[in-house]
Amino acid sequence: MVATEYALATMALLLTTGVYYAYQDRYLYYKGTLKEFEEKEKEKKSEVQPALKRVCYYTIRHGYDDTPLKPNLLDPSVCTHLIVGFASVAYDYLIPKHPKDLYVYGNVTSLKINNPDLKVLLSVGAGSGGKFSAMVNSPPGRKKFVTSAIALLEKFNFDGIDFDWEFPAWKGAPPLDRVSFIYLLRDFRNFFKAEEKEFLLTAAVAAPRSIVITAYDIPALAYFLDFVNLMCYDFHYWRPSTPYTSHHSPLYQRPNSQDVMDNVAWTSHYWIGSGMPKEKIMIGIPTYARTYILADPHTHDLDSFAKGPGRGQGKINYGEVCSFLKGGAQTVFDEFSFVPYAFKGYEWIAYESEKSVTLKAKWARKQGFGGVMTYNLNRDDWNATCDGQTRFPLHNAINDALSD
């Protein structure tokens, strides 16, 4: 029995040591470039900073036919960067999730005819582990992916590629994901340089610290990426482990709240402190709301007990929020967290309003961040439900806040 336990312990130690040295060997390949990055950042401080970015995600829902917001209904003036999601990976190649997505690609990039300054990127969506992880951890796989991605970007006139990988080395995924992701970005940069391509390279990144410390080498990301889209939302939503109401995108912590890290201000400055220059951080703002079913309609404050997710299986568009408010719901604006919530009967909704997104955008500008990212255009009131005349009211409010 003792001999068996000793043998198992020895095997575990050898495996752990093997992973450690593999990680170290890979890290040495790009470690030296970080000094070069730090020198470049010092030079940038003396340069004139560019205009603030307005990065907007546009998602293709289960294929073109099931996407209510068609490309011809988009407003190319509300964004400086438009990111189309999401492409996928198969046999280490970048491919559209649905054949008709190719039709969307061409129609979205054609928006640059009316707005030549618009940059359109293609986003690759991936969860923990799976085909994307397998590709990233294989040098031949990365090579196939990079070459196929460049071919797709060029064919449909994209300006760059975005990665929405949720998340590297997370929830049982290979620990080497964290380093191999950097390898993938390095391979893209090397290809851009060798072929004299000027594509943008960006990524959507997590806000929770528990994910960040596991999934990302932030200084290396800062070196290879043009900017990151910080997903400052879904800090809270109904789950069996958190059966109570709260904001899902608060700017600041509420007094007496134990959720010190679950807010935009804390997590964005954590990324700065971890090595990401603030001008490369886009502050994420959601256009969707989180919904709850209250256990007691007479108990409707923050932190009230909820029986489950509300309408829309816990998530609704801004236009639906406006309809809820018009139906007699009472709204409360939290002067501490700078976001509103609303309730009526058993329904409770945490959402973003034109007031709250204006405050967030002005805060991002004052703090010196590179701009704002929204997720997404589809969830904004694109058909003017709220006032009968304004399309994309949340995006327009952000634009006004960043340009006044």
From TrEMBL:
The protein's name: Acidic mammalian chitinase-like
Coiled coil: none
InterPro entries with a match to the protein in the record: Chitinase_II/V-like_cat, Chitinase_insertion_sf, GH, Glyco_hydro18_cat, Glyco_hydro_18_chit_AS, Glycosyl_Hydrlase_18
Keywords attached to this entry: Glycosidase, Hydrolase, Membrane, Transmembrane, Transmembrane helix
Residues annotated as domain GH18: 52-404
Keyword tRNA-binding annotated: no
SUPFAM superfamilies: (Trans)glycosidases, Chitinase insertion domain
Family to which this protein belongs: Belongs to the glycosyl hydrolase 18 family.
The UniProt record lists the keyword Oxidoreductase: no
Transmembrane segments: 6-23
Chain's gene name: LOC106469790
Gene3D superfamilies: 3.10.50.10, Glycosidases (3.20.20.80)
